[in-house]
Write the structure tokens for this entry.
Amino acid sequence: MREIYAEIITIGDEILYGQILDTNSQWISQQLDDIGVKVRRKYSISDQSEVIKTAVNESLAQSDLVFVTGGLGPTKDDLTKHSLAAMFEMPLELNQSALEDVEDIFKRFGKELTEINRQQAFLPKGSTKITNERGTAPGMWFDRDKKVVVSMPGVPFEMKAMMTKTILPKIKKRFQLPVIIHKVIRTIGIGESWLSEEIARWENALPTHLALAYLPGKAQVRLRLTGVGEEREVLEAEMEEQVAALLPTIQSYVYGFGDLEIEEAVGELLRAKSLTIATAESCTGGYLAHKITSVSGSSDYYTGSVIAYQNEVKIQELNVSPKTIEKHGAVSEETAKEMAEGIRKKLNVDLGISLTGIAGPDGGTEEKPVGMVWMAISFGGTVKTRKIQSPGTRILNIEYSGVKALDFIRQTLIEA
């Protein structure tokens, strides 16, 4: 079965100026992926007639479907309808159905239809009107040489209603669509290049209708296996077999699948083992606590925290020895150990974890550079430590440290 490709064009100077975010193309991509249409390219362009016509023509040359959002309003800077009409040589004419839609909207709001809004009922002759139930600008569907151009308003809630009710069902009827399935494997604790080396033999043996993508994040890599086929059940079974064949190679790095986040995986482990946890944070300023408590139901296992940013708080609240700080410093393995022990005892939990480091951008030395973080876990009668070197800016160092701490907890619980 032939794959169907699409391109998405968002129109608006406000997007190019960075005044608003283009959320439309992301949402449209997700909807098209669900029905088996592959998005080949998406881009934003200015409100200029020649730019619009050039972009649409270029996309038509490459893909089966072209989606255009924006530029359908009633003002002079809204040029999409006129540009498409000129490009397809379709003169504008009054569409009676579109006029009735606009009149109905004004009646509902108790207002009289203005001439400028009446002009919105003029559509390119030969195009198909797409009803806009949430606004005054109708969408347009153009069939051209076995290809389709769809023009929609840029207002997200208007566009989404059109896509959901009218356009997606119409696409399903118009094209014979393949099945597209994604399987996402969540890994942590191994970099992208090292992971690719580990699974190279498996990846190289994948059949041509299955493709692997690496999606790196903060101390994590998502592996997305995408399959294209004709029968969902057959494709699902084949992909499950491939995942099962891969897992033994990377099992120690895999914490979950799909949309599962590392903090959710850690929470599941704590709940399954009926364990409680508390956090003592210095350089991360409560970020680890935030990640843990962002999970619904985390009160089942999370007790609380101490943000011991200054040494006095480490000493008074976590029972860290002043001599330890004096001899080894606040950022040290020894201080991290005492912080972890202190929080475990203070809040009477099964597992206490601590982080102390240098988030930056200032405060680093040759011996203790910016981004260096010591963490410790007090659990099961022992204290384990780990030193990491975070790679970036202050915020990135904080976030990276929080994710690495969650993985430290995960590994500790698995080994218990």
User: Anything to note?
Assistant: The first helix runs from residue 13 to 16.
